[in-house]
Amino acid sequence: MLEGVTTATRVPADPWPAPTASGPVRAVVRVPGSKSGTNRALILAAAADGVSRLRGALRSRDTLLMAGALRALGVGVDAEPSPGAATGTEWVVRGGLGRGDGGPVAVDCGNAGTVARFTPALAALTRADTRFDGDPQMRARPLTPLLDALRHLGAVIDGDAMPFTIHGQGRVPGGSVTVDASGSSQLISGLLLAAPGYDRGVEVSHVGGRLPSGPYLDMTVTDLRAAGATVETTPAYAGRPPVWRVAPGPLRAHDRAIEPDLNSAAPFLAAAVATGGDVLIPDWPEVTTQPGRMLPALLEQMGARAELTPMGMRVRAGDGLHGLDADLGDVGEAAPVLTALAVLADSPSRLRGIAHLRLHETDRLAALADQLGRLGADITVTEDGLAIRPVPLRGARLDPLADHRLAMTYAVVGLAVPGVAVDDIATTGKTVPEFPAMWAAMLTGPSLVSDVTDQPLAPDNSG
Ligand SMILES: O=C(O)C1=C[C@@H](OP(=O)(O)O)[C@@H](O)[C@H](O)C1
Ligand SMILES: C=C(OP(=O)(O)O)C(=O)O
Fold it and tell me: What are the GO BP annotations of this UniProt entry (predicted)?
């Protein structure tokens, strides 16, 4: 087990002094596996019959919580180091839910949206009474539409919000249901991922405000199909809601390589842009459902140069760092780090389409305005995002409010603003357990991947 990553207790510790860059950051940074990829693969392997192996998987607080939840449901999950991989874990999953053991069992969701939203629909297929709870922040995040939908599909549930108990009946009838997923796309993904095990499968349509994080629904569909499920999708059209249909049927056990987490690459790529530097992320996939694929283009809009080289994604600072006006509804997790760059830019920014960030690990819109405001930043919370006006900044102590992405965002600002200190840097362990060490290695070298960094980065063909 990773020390400390599964506990919700915040241990008071000295704040982490965010290092200031003494010059342009030049580094090759290998980032750990995708949280979303790992936790979907774990769920699908748990529901399949047979043994699955997941290479390069993430081993962090959120994925350890997922492994713990699946073990509680009677699934065998073991972790081994990935053979030959510089980072990552190989999870070995012995699928088949423990339908016969009767429970009661408990699932700790921590503050992992993927655990809280993906495991209840699976628990309904067991014969256990499963009680779900999590960190105080998770209790406040959207869940009720998922529980209502599960009830409608035939699951037996006590409670409308966390904590709640699912009384597994060994089967769920399934059928058609409407969900308001405007608070989180995960409310739909959670239904779809378990749907092949429901008697009639599941048909879900979204009715409500704007659906956030659309690429994650594509990831759910792609991963379900790769595991052998039959899925049909109908996009929103002429006033009709988008619909997803998953047919009942068995899932295959699978061996799969998990992609690097492109969201976890964001602070490192931003470090290049903030310091006039040059950062390469190896193993960046050419084709991916991860919304983080949009990050290089967003950084280019701020003046950076991005290029997918045979060695990975290379991002270099260009002439200046400019403000950004963008709709980030599909790629909301990038908003905090882009805000860090926006406060350092030479012109104002407007980040739109991200009202749902109020419902993430913390209210990210308020937190960014308040906490970066301590540095003197001029950030206004708008109806659906942030308006940022660059002004001179000073150092201060910042609280990430138990939000990994906020902690990493403060580290980016700290590269350019002396005297930034971050409380509870260990909160980065939600997705990037080695963050402080990786950040130090990025700044001081030697680089994390010596066989690549010993060579020059790809030649500059930009003229
Ligand atoms: O399905 C997923 O793996 C995720 C979906 C998104 O959630 P929301 O739709 O709640 O934004 C994203 O923010 C989260 O980090 C991961
Ligand atoms: C919103 C996030 O996480 P979660 O999976 O807990 O929703 C995130 O990682 O930015």
Answer: amino acid biosynthetic process; aromatic amino acid family biosynthetic process; chorismate biosynthetic process
